[in-house]
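Typical record was shown:
=====
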Amino acid sequence: MVCGVNVTPLILLLAIGFHSIFEGIALGMTDNEGIFINLMIGVALHHIAATISLGVSLGQHQVNSKKAIFLIFFGLSLIEPAGIGIGIGLSDSPEFVESIVMSLAGGTFVYIACSEILVHEFEDKQHRYLKFFFFILGSAAITLLWFLNSQHSHSH
């Protein structure tokens, strides 16, 4: 708590926003339609989980102002398109720039997942094994999709 205010939802919002800008930049820099579609599907599914997590965090910390909640989610909805615009502007950059942006996007995703979402989910002992099962199932699905995509891209 800072000055009597729990900053956990704010930190989560900043982390999701920071991650979203780099996701958007990565999307905007993508010039391959197939890769763009795969990234877009992953981003859309990820944002469902991220916004639910943010909503739960706001509820747990009793943020009751409808105006504040609206502004938080409205602002968050603008960050990704802004990143896409930046990415389009950077699309003619050298390949190492794309590598750096993709690394930052992936790194922020892993950081948020590990430090902000998973930690809080596993603090609650209820349904711990079910949560772990779905964590492993999700990880396996992402790995399988990556494997299938890499096999598909090498066959062309």
